[in-house]
Automatic annotation (TrEMBL):
Residues 114-141 are annotated as: Disordered. One of its GO terms (biological process) is acyl-CoA metabolic process. It comes from Prunus persica (Peach). One of its GO terms (molecular function) is guanosine-3',5'-bis(diphosphate) 3'-diphosphatase activity. The keyword Zinc-finger does not apply. This is Nudix hydrolase domain-containing protein.
Length: 277
């Protein structure tokens, strides 16, 4: 999945403050205070125009490139083919050696889309979700058994755009009591739950990239190779892009490699070949 960073929302969602948010190390408390001050970059008029154009022609775009979550013809269910909003949870905690780590999943190999890929817990917004933090923590509970009351949601990042024109909002939360979380993956969705050091995603170790082109713009896809408990994982695409961005914000420094994303523009003419590689 390709990570195309876009600013697609005009107001940040409300942030949750669980009852146990005062618990945790001084480092985590300082991090929470730091991240609450983060503000996504402001919108430009071009962003607003592009957002409107996405809404206006989205039914045409997805009917041509295909909407992975459904095979329902657009004529039968047009509401289903509007651009959807989703949220993923970057749940950070302090490791045994004092490093910051993030919880990741390996999707079930039985899923019809992105099977076997590494992902962040999350999913589409549902009716009843109060905000993006609510979506992300609800999905994390459904996927890996993470109790939302254990997560202190502190900020959200700029939305990313998936290859299926899904707006994906990264939500950063802090797990102060890691011992209280016992992973219980939903076998229908998740094959494995593991964690990785967040700082890894702004280092040039165990990283490779591929250059691709879409609609005349060249961009890079980053791949991170990671091994833990004798299991090997490849973290790439949308997930890698979100983690690079989050690590840059948390550690207040840019990665030593080029983080290159194309300038996303909805094409005026869409045909069956208009897909994101």
């Amino acid at each position: 999945m390709i990570s195309l960073l876009r600013r697609l929302s005009t107001s940040p969602p409300l942030l949750m403050e669980p009852a146990n948010s005062c618990v945790g190390s001084q480092r985590l408390l300082a991090l929470a205070q730091q991240l609450r001050l983060y503000k996504p970059p402001p919108f430009s008029s071009d962003d607003d125009i592009e957002e409107q154009r996405i809404e206006e022609i989205a039914h045409k775009v997805v009917s041509q490139v295909g909407f992975a979550e459904s095979n329902t013809p657009i004529a039968q269910d047009p509401e289903r083919f509007r651009p959807k909003r989703a949220a993923v949870l970057l749940c950070l905690f302090e490791g045994d050696v004092g490093d910051l780590r993030v919880i990741l999943t390996k999707r079930s190999s039985k899923l019809s889309t992105h099977s076997g890929e590494v992902a962040l817990p999350g999913g589409k917004t549902e009716e009843g979700d109060k905000d993006d933090g609510d979506t992300a923590t609800r999905e994390a509970k459904e996927e890996i058994g993470l109790d939302p009351s254990l997560v202190n949601v502190v900020t959200v990042l700029e939305p990313f755009l998936s290859k299926h024109l899904l707006r994906v909002v990264p939500v950063i939360g802090i797990l102060n009591e890691k011992e209280a979380f016992k992973a219980a993956p939903n076998p229908a969705e998740v094959e494995a739950v593991f964690d990785a050091p967040l700082e890894m995603f702004i280092k040039d170790e165990n990283r490779r990239s591929e250059e691709r082109e879409w609609m005349g713009n060249k961009y890079l896809i980053h791949f991170f190779d990671y091994e833990t408990k004798n299991k090997k994982y490849i973290i790439w695409g949308l997930t890698a892009g979100i983690l690079i961005r989050a690590a840059s914000i948390v550690y207040k420094r840019s990665p030593p490699f080029v983080e290159q994303n194309p300038i996303y523009k909805v094409p005026r003419v869409v045909d069956i070949n208009t897909t994101i590689p």
